[in-house]
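User: I'm writing a short report section on ligand binding and want a predicted complex to refer to. Could you take this sequence and pyridoxal-5'-phosphate and write out the structure as tokens? A short remark afterwards would be nice.
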Amino acid sequence: MGEAHFSNLGSVPTGNQQSGVKMTQSVTETVNRQSQFIAGGTMSTNRAITPPRVFVRAMGAYLWDAEGKKYIDYHAGFAPYLFGHGDPEVDEAVVKAIRSGASLIGAGTTPWEAEISELLCDAVPGLEQIQLTNSGSEAVSYALRLARAATGRDVVVLMQGGYNGWADYVSYNLMDPASIVAEHEPGTEYKLRPFTSGIPGVISETVRVVEFNDLEAAERVLSRGDVAAIILEPILQNIGVVKPLPGYLEGLRAICDRTGTMLIFDEVKTGFRHALGGYQAISGVIPDLSTFGKAIANGYPMGVVGGKREIMAFCAHPDPERRVVIAGTYNGHPVNVAAATAVLKRLKSREAEIYERLEKLGSRLETGLREVFSRRNYPATIVRQGSAIAVYFMDHVPTSWRDVAMNHDSDRDVSYRRAMIDAGVFHFPVATKQSSISLAHSEEDIDRTIEITSDVLNRLN
Ligand SMILES: Cc1ncc(COP(=O)(O)O)c(C=O)c1O
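Assistant: Sure. The structure tokens for the complex follow:
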């Protein structure tokens, strides 16, 4: 079963014409033309993929490229689309907000800001007060600023294999190569390696990196008493799905309490995808501060930073020198707030039904993939949390980036992803990137994905 199969998935969208990209235009020509004016060739440089593709439409569970080919989408724009692309309820709320004069006023406050803040604090255990931003990266930057202000300390601790956005303080050791992690001694901190140039050397004096699930390393670094915050994704979802070992999050909470360090959960990916209350509601470990983004607005730009009242109170500290400024012309933009409010209200009113449905779809995909991979003569391990899923080409469930870097067959992973894309299923073609299921996926989509995977693996073997 190959591309012909996918021509049955639906008709080619008329939206191609509206978007101004001609269906017949060759991908190479478009890519070449765009790279003259777009630095790096793609907006957001981590979107670059090989071979290059030009997309013109996304709707529900599907993507269409400029040549009219349709894909079942599991990339979901790096995960915001919990309800699927172009969700009618969310879009309706957005259009209604625009038409009713809910413009960006930028002075004082508005009723819609009050509503969403209350909804968020009601839904997420660790949120007593919040601020809205336009992205996860901004939310993370503010969380670190708040933690530093509240503790009077400068150092922040990050996870190897964790991604917390593009800000300077968190742009270190995202996925160090196997040659480096192999030499790393468990229980210690990593030598810092920024993943971008342009970061002043002085920043590294205030950053430490430890391995996820390595409590001893966290204990050692935090015990020095100079750490403002340790920030982590409670499940590492930028290297697939790497879950905390039993007791790890609880252990971090205890070390933070003992050392006066802020525990920050970066729930930009886990938040709302796994539970209305975030992964903190599932784990029962409540951080001091949390950040959210992505699924909260189903594709509209929104970030949230929030946490304990006494920390968030630094936003209005009576001493101007201790006050934390959170500023942004577009913070709380009514269009994004309308989208996020619609998402939150839907999750709240149909919480059990929605998460059960996502679990059911996820479990169906996991079971099917397990079956087709088990027939191969190389190891593959499938890890899933609800609607987030990853296939590792290794013989056990990974517990850290070190584990992935040393055991996962990245070349096989990339070949598999590229072959799946050719066959009409879009997993982002970079090794270990997590795949996301949405409410727009049907059982039929999942079953077709499994059939196509089987077909692709037969050809890859
Ligand atoms: C866990 C996590 N934190 C922060 C960010 C940054 O969010 P944004 O891309 O909205 O700035 C991301 C983005 O992928 C993320 O996955």
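A remark for your report: The two ends are 16 Å apart (CA to CA). The chain has 16 helices and 14 strands.
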